[in-house]
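Pair request: fold both.
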Amino acid sequence: MTHLSPIGAVIAMEVELQHLLDQGQIVEERKHGPWREVELTIGPNRIIALLCGIGMVNAAAATEDLINAHRPRIVVNSGCTGAHIAELLPGDVVIGTAVVYHAAMQILATGEERHTGFVFETITREVKSPALMTDPKLVDLAQQVAKSTRIPDWPANLDWPPSQPRRAPRIVSGPVASADIWTQQISRIEVLHKRHETLCEDMEAAAIGQIAARHEIPYLTIKDISNNERYAQTDLVGELAGFPMEEAGHRAAVLLGQVIAAIPAEFDDRAR
């Protein structure tokens, strides 16, 4: 009998990890080198969740460690993001159809920016692409699961754009941008959206996706919106005053938990 390999989850922040742990049953917690690992079950599936810390280097290093240690059959990620379009409001959820490393660029002598995108080798091929597609079967599964998943409303005691009527969270699909950059200037956000058609940005999803792609492991990222700079500028001084930290990644984790529970055992099983 072969042993079914786990699903690996790479999560940046403690609060985001806890939201995912709340979706299942914890089996064991341990330390693997510098990384905190939590083994849990969600539905019929075994998960190894790793807390990576914020940023592209942390995310890439943690994903490589997770893959080498546990040989997951799928890699997933959830967490919070800032919106790139006006239509996305706090609590909305984005199913990532692709990831973009938006800081991979050349600044030409003219001042013009040239996005270079991803250039790397996988086990079997060379990749040169402005974006990495996430696994289409996992995206399709997430979109189907989303139709019957109840996403919690944004708490009434937290800030909401005064110009927008309160509404229930929406689940949409589209590309996610990543870099060690927090973009606040609206004109810059519009440049990124126009260039990449991205819906939101974070600091980990593209790094995790690149390492998964190098190992040719299916990857899915699900993100939720914690802030939209078009309506209220985030205070980046000190401890992110006013940022809804307790809600970071909450709704993305709810949907990801439902998706994980729906992943069949035979999905790209890489049992060793």
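--- second member of the pair ---
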Amino acid sequence: MDRGGKTILFISEALSAPFDEGMKNVAYSLHTQLAKKREALSVTNAGNKTDNLKIRKINLNKLFLNSELKKLIKSYSPDIILYLPDASITFNSFVRARVLKLMRRNSKVVMLGIQHREYSSVQTILIENFLRPDMLLLLGKKDENYFRQKGMEVNVLPPAVDNLRFNEAANIEKEKIRVEYDIPKDKKIVLHVGHIKVNRNIECLIEVQKIDDIQVVIVGSTSIVIESDLKSRLVKAGILVIDYYIPDISRIYKMADIYVFPVVSNKEAIDMPLSVLEAMATNLPVITTRFGGLIDNFDEDSEFRYFDTMEELIKLVKLVKETDSMGVDNNKKIGSFTWHRFTNEIITFCEELV
């Protein structure tokens, strides 16, 4: 185990169980990998659920103006403070990053932004002139030039997925899981995993449910309030909605045949949707919008397709439904996209600052 190199203080409000959505999964994966690789301490809010994880809990307010946090930073004397805000890179997140810098000026403050955010003209001026962290890390290239023009040092990270947990299922395992959810063998399962919110455009899956021999399954995160009216419309249309916590979500992917990611608004998902990567690791064919960092990393082919309209989505689902799945190799496309590599790249970027 390599524990050489610089000391890292990792702070994130997203370190809270259950780890069942993108932001939390990134935070959890970083926490576990950093603990293996470096002298690192993880910090989160006192009210968060951390189970048996070795995470320091502090009463964090909105601006991080906390004497206990300041004392911890002073005593730990980290070379690097790595901050992953649970609301991503909002204006207030930049303020908090600046507060962390003021608590120990010798530390390099690195902020990880995994979702697009927008700022008012006044906020933009303040960020550019007073609130810049030592480095900003992003999951997609869309915002890279914007922040570079504000004078920031910016690096874009590769995606990551737990490809040991998410892997292709044998037919017998797939059939066994389908029986548990009472889904007939003659149905093709179209899966989506994510928050049950109107703004995520998942209502379009009602039209997919109308395709012959298709069963749509939607798994909603328990960390975000489910919009009950939307859920009712989905269920009424015949969609199977799973709105309770599933300890091993990989089993749901393993029973599916096609994965659809319909999100359009960049405010409604992290820049590199983990559910798409998990579907690819499970070797499902993917049909997705041209979202965030996906277009930076994956070209369109017969197994990974982009759509822009409802008509295209329906056409592609019908096409993939009739295609032999034996030739799918989406899992090979992400073989190197591990949390091990993801964390190593963060460490490399951070240590180059010091």
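Observation on the second member. Residues 22-37 form the longest helix (16 residues).
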